[in-house]
Amino acid sequence: QVQLVESGGGLVQAGGSLRLSCAVSGRLFSSSAMGWFRQAPGKEREFVAAISRTGSTTVYGDSVKGRFTISRDNAKNTVYLQMNGLNPEDTAIYYCASRVLGIAATANEYNYWGQGTQVTVSS
After folding, report:
1. What confidence tens digit (pLDDT) does each residue in 70-96 have?
2. In this structure, which long-range contacts are made by residues 103-106, counting pairs with CB atoms below 8 Å and at least 24 apart in sequence?
3. How many CB atoms lie within 10 A of CB 95?
4. What are residue 59's phi and psi, to 5 degrees?
5. What's the CA gap between 15 and 55, in Å, rounded?
6. Where are the strands (E) in the chain, listed by range?
7. For residue 80, which of 68, 64, 67, 63 has the smallest C-alpha distance?
8. Three-class SS of residue 30?
9. pLDDT tens digits along 21-40
């Protein structure tokens, strides 16, 4: 069974930074692409970023390009999301997700999900 646990969310002022972590249990981490998604109240789940199994390929949603960076440490079974230049529109619950094989940017292509971590950006 694969379990994903996000951490690192919180309250930050506009312009600030946060780093989210997602710890993954199980032996499939190094063979899994990982993604971050977010969902704000009343809105659909939005793709944020994804990273390939080796970390050699990354993809970002248009709204976070140039501000967010996804990375992974396969020795620690952990994926990270460094978020810089945060603004109130980034306020949402952030979820990490995993899928076996290739990188993907749509939620329904991911097999396992964490419970989410709240990020709130004040103006």
Report:
1. 999 999 999 999 999 999 999 999 999
2. 103/33, 103/35, 103/50, 103/51, 103/52, 103/57, 103/59, 104/33, 104/35, 104/50, 105/35, 105/47, 105/50, 105/59, 105/61, 106/47
3. 23
4. -135, 145
5. 27
6. 4-7, 10-13, 18-24, 32-39, 46-51, 58-60, 68-73, 78-83, 92-100, 112-113, 117-122
7. 68
8. helix
9. 999 998 888 889 999 999 99
